[in-house]
Amino acid sequence: MSEVVVPRAADGGAGDGELSGPPPVGWGVLGASSRVAKLAMLPAIAASPKARLVAVASRSAPRARGFGAERAYGTYEELLADPEVDAVYIPLPNGLHAEWALKAADAGKHVLCEKPLACSADEARRMAAAFEAKGLLLAEAYMTPFHPRSTVLEDVLRSGQLGELRFAHTSFTGSLPQDDGHRWRADLGGGVLLDLGIYCLAPLLVAAQRLPVEVVGSATTGSTGVETSFSGWLDFGNGFRASIECSYEAAESQVVEVSGTEGSVLVHRAFTPGPDDTTVHIRRRDGSTEDIGWRGADPYRGLVDHVSTVLQGGDVLRWPVARSIELLVLVDTLRAAAGRT
């Protein structure tokens, strides 16, 4: 499916003979009391000169003062009816992504939806088709690629300096106490594969540039019926194979390691990078090593800046919806391999 991007109409015309740039994109946030919204996305929108936090909606705390928005609503429908909201960020539980993204499309709003974009590839395809038909932008709020170190890693993987790829291992694990939150509810798209597994799989697709030809999956299921730990083995063909581990039960780990015939690359704290995370470690076939890096940054700010620039007509999506759908195809395949259909 093609990626359709319709720039936000710029009303900044000439004043006193001078051209002005496009105005900031007007953002609205559904579910502003969510953890990721409060701690990451709301501050990023507020800090971006390309964005304007027009409105928030929260059923539990509809107060603009607490979130720094110009307006606050007690229902999501009120926010979607706000004519000054150009784009909507959706950090709701996974099982509500499709419902509210489609309602936003019906209201004529562009959408940046938290990862995973949907609970299945078919659901994501339906969402993408609806936005394409209306000429609106749908993007997944997967922030890791918008950290400068991720650009370094992608350059290494695509440069050929590792030779022919042979092995990869990705791991995202940590202890998450069971509660009544959405991660532990099957009806809301809970489970570790859709949550942490997305991070493990994305860099493998970047490295391989294709879906695997064979997968094996194994899941540990908790008392609420969702996967609490998941491991997988993937054969991408041409001699390249990979393993993944994601868990709510195991000790904390965030690792990406890819090995080829000429060298390997290793990244720690791979999926939640911040200002202090700047380097990837290269080990070459001759035993020499090198740390390659760039500056650190807030990836959420990078995400907001990028999507706002796309809506202003100044860029194209670096993480298009087709890539989000490809990730969910792989999730569906692994889930089926583990007998979790």
Task: Give a description of the structure.
The protein is of the alpha/beta class. The protein has helices spanning 35-47, 64-67, 76-80, 97-106, 121-134, 148-159, 192-195, 197-208, 299-311, 321-337, and strands spanning 14-15, 18-19, 25-30, 51-57, 71-73, 87-90, 110-114, 138-141, 165-173, 214-221, 227-235, 241-247, 253-260, 263-268, 279-284, 289-293. It is globular. The relative contact order is 0.17. Mean pLDDT is 92; it is low at 1-19.
Strand segment count: 16
- In the predicted model, the low-confidence regions spanning at least 5 consecutive residues are 1-19
Estimate the global geometry from the Cα principal axes: globular
Going across the biggest sheet, name each strand in turn. 10-11-12-9-13-14-15-16
Percent helix, as a range, is 25-40%
Q: What does the largest sheet look like?
A: 8 strands, mixed
Helix/strand order: EEEHEHEHEHEHEHEHHEEEEEEEHH
Task: Provide the gyration radius in Å.
Answer: 20 Å
Task: Give the rounded overall mean pLDDT.
Answer: 92
| Class from helix and strand fractions | alpha/beta
What is the terminal-to-terminal distance?
25 Å
Strand content: 25-35%
Total count of helical runs of at least 4 residues: 10
